[in-house]
Amino acid sequence: MFVKINVASFLVALFVVLVEGSNVIESIVEDHEHSIGTQWAVLVAGSSDWYNYRHQADICHAYQLLKKGGLKDEHIIVFMYDDIAYNSENPRPGVIINKPHGPDVYKGVPKDYTGKNCNAQNFYGVILGNKSALTGGSGKVVNSGPNDYIFIYYADHGGPGVIEMPVEPPIYGKDLNEVLKKKHGSRTYKKMVFYLEACDSGSMFEGLLDKGLNIYVTTASKSDENSFATYCAPKDYEDTCLGDLFSVSWLENSDLQDRRVETLKKQFRRIRKRVLNNGTEGSHMMEYGDLHIHNDALSKYMGSNSPQHTSSSTNNYPSNSRHVNQRDVQLLYLISKFQNAPEGSIRKSEAYRKLSEVISEREHVDKSVKHIGQILFGVKNGPEVLNIVRPAGQPLVDDWDCLKSFVKIFESYCGSLTSYGKKHVRGFANMCNAGIQRDQMDAAAKQTCSS
Ligand SMILES: *[C@@H]1O[C@H](CO)[C@@H](O)[C@H](O)[C@H]1NC(C)=O
Ligand SMILES: *[C@@H]1O[C@H](CO)[C@@H](O)[C@H](O)[C@H]1NC(C)=O
């Protein structure tokens, strides 16, 4: 009798394998495990200021999506400076939207890490579930177990190997990947998905993210490519942008599609074209880490939804919406302020002064970095060396401590590198890669900026 039952169940199992394929069994097993695990999310807007409206709008939109998807507030941890909703420039006080005529996405968003608590140290502590590492904020951390699913989404400015936070220091690629490795070592998740939007965002993982950590990453752009703001200068918001291109593309796709059916891979393919935007004012999305994870349904990370019924969903966005290179949105803001001020007014001259100040600040950073490069590598070779892009699969720099110290040395003589100037981090990385020593860098920066 026993034998018969075992044979029968063996045959049933074999039948399932043969007929339906092993994917089905895998997904049944996974669904079961999923049902006992918890879904966590960490959402990070790395900027502050009105002209950066879009990053906090993206993050708030993501919160609404996850919340509607069934994730619990105690499992969604939000980092945002929180200076947008009640900003004096907001035409709709208390409201944040993520597309023209879009719904309010601000209502109900948990204020876990706001203001100066929206910082890198808290971000690491939250991911690692280490409450004693926190410096303030709500104290919510990813207190996850081995069967849990974690979704991390970050939107902001970045540069090669670096992404910003509203307060110093920024997050370097090496440190972020160390934190992820440590999280994996603590065996406190089953799988993790990380979506990252920033300029040069691929460089945060290129040659850095180990395989086998059960982490799948999508970035908005390659290692050496800008990412783009979108929904720029719509009516009533002429001086800012309401979203970022990769961010609103995945968010709107996740709102629209049935997330129990749509996989990460399908989402990647579906939005890739929109993000590339014909190769003009668009970027190449990238994937890193354990790519097999991209066969998972979105619902594992974002919860499920009642999909909106439309036949073709991909073209359902304003195709004439304005895109602006993330690094230039501040100029859009300042130019708009200048244009809209009445002729001859104090506001006009004030706006002009501010615009000139920012433009000369940019020129100062560009010229200073170039000059340092020329001192170190020669007038002709300098610019060339600073612009070297390493082949795919290689990290930006071998010695990250060298890179960090070179940025510090630069700032000590030449002033803040600024968000705009973060694009020059590759130049500093290449100085380190070429074996330049700290005292050489110090002398070159001093010669360039202290006269
Ligand atoms: C948690 O953070 C504290 C403070 O940074 C640190 O000393 C401690 O080692 C961390 N604990 C773990 C388990 O990583
Ligand atoms: C994209 O490129 C195609 C072919 O080059 C062109 O026909 C189309 O108008 C472009 N679309 C946009 C939005 O620029």
UniProtKB/TrEMBL annotation:
<dbReference type="GO" id="GO:0005773">
    <property type="term" value="C:vacuole"/>
</dbReference>
<dbReference type="Pfam" id="PF01650">
    <property type="entry name" value="Peptidase_C13"/>
</dbReference>
<dbReference type="GO" id="GO:0006624">
    <property type="term" value="P:vacuolar protein processing"/>
</dbReference>
<dbReference type="GO" id="GO:0004197">
    <property type="term" value="F:cysteine-type endopeptidase activity"/>
</dbReference>
<keyword id="KW-0732">Signal</keyword>
<dbReference type="InterPro" id="IPR001096">
    <property type="entry name" value="Peptidase_C13"/>
</dbReference>
<keyword id="KW-0645">Protease</keyword>
<feature type="active site" description="Nucleophile">
    <location>
        <position position="199"/>
    </location>
</feature>
<feature type="domain" description="Legumain prodomain">
    <location>
        <begin position="354"/>
        <end position="449"/>
    </location>
</feature>
<protein>
    <recommendedName>
        <fullName>Legumain prodomain domain-containing protein</fullName>
    </recommendedName>
</protein>
<dbReference type="Pfam" id="PF20985">
    <property type="entry name" value="Legum_prodom"/>
</dbReference>
<keyword id="KW-1015">Disulfide bond</keyword>
<feature type="region of interest" description="Disordered">
    <location>
        <begin position="300"/>
        <end position="321"/>
    </location>
</feature>
<dbReference type="InterPro" id="IPR046427">
    <property type="entry name" value="Legumain_prodom_sf"/>
</dbReference>
<feature type="signal peptide">
    <location>
        <begin position="1"/>
        <end position="21"/>
    </location>
</feature>
<dbReference type="InterPro" id="IPR048501">
    <property type="entry name" value="Legum_prodom"/>
</dbReference>
<comment type="similarity">
    <text>Belongs to the peptidase C13 family.</text>
</comment>
<feature type="compositionally biased region" description="Low complexity">
    <location>
        <begin position="310"/>
        <end position="321"/>
    </location>
</feature>
<dbReference type="InterPro" id="IPR043577">
    <property type="entry name" value="AE"/>
</dbReference>
<keyword id="KW-0788">Thiol protease</keyword>
<keyword id="KW-0378">Hydrolase</keyword>
<feature type="active site">
    <location>
        <position position="157"/>
    </location>
</feature>
<keyword id="KW-0325">Glycoprotein</keyword>
<dbReference type="GO" id="GO:0051603">
    <property type="term" value="P:proteolysis involved in protein catabolic process"/>
</dbReference>
